[in-house]
Design a protein that fits this description.
alpha+beta, Cytidine Deaminase, domain 2, 6 strands, binds tetrahydrodeoxyuridine, Cyt_deam_tetra, cytidine deaminase activity, metal-binding
Length: about 160
């Protein structure tokens, strides 16, 4: 038997003013996108904004469905659009804002497992890290320098 230890490094910021302007702008877009979420079932709205290497910003919000599993998270709405419309551009960063309509969300909300898997696909495809930033409606912001930090033991094309 041998033990594997997995360490990860995240950076926590107290507010947007601690972050570079371009990241604060990305969060502004994510917040706008969150306002367009369609989440009548969970009342939990999420906005994601992606920065591409050409300066383009792609946004997405969660889109729910009466058939619950048919809905899609904000992060995948955004990243699949980026992949479909800008297949040759590098994805530099993603900012995520999330919160409940029922109470104030003050803790950073990380992307769900399925979204991490989807983001991982693009990070591996482009062989360049994607910075991931996430927060609640207010409060601290968490930064991961790469999706890899959020999904150790990733299932990727190398195992196929
Ligand atoms: N949701 C996201 O948009 N992103 C995540 O990473 C986690 C969850 C959405 C899906 C659903 O519409 C609502 O939040 C509650 O799960």
């Amino acid at each position: 038997m041998r033990e594997i230890q997995i360490n990860t490094v995240l950076h926590v910021y107290t507010g947007l003013d601690e972050l570079p302007n371009k990241v604060a702008q990305l969060f502004e877009k994510a917040r706008e996108a969150r306002g367009k979420a369609y989440a009548p079932y969970s009342n939990f709205t999420v906005g994601a904004a992606i920065l591409l290497d050409n300066g383009e910003i792609i946004t997405g919000s969660n889109q729910e469905n009466a058939s619950f599993p048919s809905g899609l998270c904000a992060e995948r709405t955004a990243i699949y659009y980026a992949g479909a419309q800008f297949p040759s551009n590098l994805i530099k960063a993603m900012a995520i804002v999330a919160g409940s309509k029922n109470h104030k969300t003050t803790t950073p909300i990380p992307p769900c497992g399925a979204c991490r898997q989807a983001i991982a696909e693009y990070e591996i495809k482009q062989n360049q890290p994607i910075e991931i930033y996430f927060m609640g409606e207010e409060g601290e912001i968490v930064k991961s320098n790469s999706l890899k930090n959020l999904l150790p033991l990733v299932f990727d094309k190398n195992v196929l």
